[in-house]
Design goal:
about 600 residues, mainly alpha, four-stranded antiparallel beta sheet, about 70% helix
Length: about 600
Amino acid sequence: EFAMNNMAQASALMGLMLLAVIVLLWFLFRSFSAVFWPVLVISFSAFWSIGFLSRIGVTLCTRVSLTFMLILAVGTADCVHVLSAYMLYRQQGHEHCTAMQKAYRKTGVPIFLTTITTMAGMSALMISDIPQIAVFGLNSALGVGVAFILTIFLLPVLLDIWHPFSKKSEKTLKLKQLQQKDAHSSLLQKALSALPEMVGKRKMLIVICYFVLFGSFIYGTSLVKIDSNLIELAKEDSEIRVTYKLVDENMMGGQSLEFILDMNKRDAFKNADVLKTVEQFTEHLHAEYPEYVVKTFSLADIVKDTHMIMQEGDPAYEFVPNDSILTAQLLYLFDNANPEDRRNLVNDDYSLSHISVQLKNKGSYEYTNFFEQVQKDLNQQFSGLKVNYPEMEVSVTGQLALMMELIDHISWAQIQSFAFALMIITLLMMVSLGSVQAGLISMVPNLLPAFFTFGVMGLLGIPLDTDTLIIPPLIIGIAVDDTIHFIAHYRDAWYESGDVNAALHSTLKEVGQAVTFTTVILGIGFSMLAFSDYMGLAKTGIFGSLSIVIALTSDLLLLPALISWLKPDLGRAKYLAVKEAKQAKNVTGAEPITSVINDKLS
């Protein structure tokens, strides 16, 4: 019931998140078409990908909400970059068709590259042997791919039918341009225009500050622990959490554990030495682990109770006798009273039994350490029986132990998938940007927001769980989008001018606005999830929105500072050599792939 309520609430929060995006798109563009068409493209992408997987029989899970968030983030970013470029060219006086052509020529290649890198990164999650993670990766990659196709083929058609600039607005714009030809630009543009000079003067200080911050996040990551407490994923005053607390404090505990005792010898559990060992072990559990153990139950308890009853209920006889003949007689009464109940506790030949333990609710980190310790205690307590029972096998098991092992396996599988996705994205960035140096530089502002979640949670002592572990790959998928737009525009401007400051100024002026818009939209959109009663989704909203802001500052401050300091060539020397060779020979050579894509998109 708790899980179903969470899914219903997640659906409502997704709607609230979409509403926030709609409001912000209107605030930024002040045009109904600039709001309606991007939302339509995003909705088509999400429903098509989720619907397609459902149609072919793939079982979807609660991570569908995270898939929708990624599609919303990437799809919104792509549409905002296109619309921002389009609006900029319209404001410069270009007609609709020309502005559309220039906008897609400017943003087409970066959108294509972000789609490829994000799809590759999310597809890397499919290597996981956990179906939920694999399906999340497949669904996300498919959704991002569909969003790209619709942005390239459907959005321009929709904008041609109903575009942001009507004839009335065009006349108003031209009038304003005549009246305010020398007017100052907007506050945002002023700030973006001032950034290159500020960054150029303080580039070393900015780089050092960011790397110190990065180092603190790495240190925080070393402190983080993986701990999934299913009950603590509910808010403090939620019904299920209050109920578990009541059960732990006043009843038999909310969890259970089993110790399997296989002696591999007939009538072993009629032997007094074996039953005494079971009795001593259960007493040891109560004495050593009172914070975990509520109650234990075993065949030894049956013998103790029967022994006391046979002595007219005298509590002094509530123990396992040292005589094996007597213990066998006491068990004979138990066996004949109800054979079916007996089979729930010991098998027919008395070679296999178990100890049931009722536990208080804890997290997977505490439980895992507890299970490891009690396994050692179990081996130590039963080691004296090895002489008479050389084939004896004793182990910790039960639904809880298996669940905790599964949760930890899922967590480490997600970390491995994230590492693999990071490697794939880095390689693709190097290839797509045509430079190892550019690829490595572009990954720095993407790693910072990804490790922000790990670092802050480690420094604050907040444990990672299976939900928060999905934030870093989600954030990298979003952050790499803006970074590629920035690097791609800078490279074009750098190729043409050969002036780092001029190229940075042009990039921040054109791309900076779109990057800021997408951050504001996605940051506020993600923050809507913080209102969820399910802490896994709430933490995704809180840390996700903060990570997106970190990604923005990295793109606007750290990335320009690195470029201004290192002055990477980005293949400009080769580009100029090829250009000069073509001009000298007056022949047409093979066009670079980016030029081909640009021409096709135009």
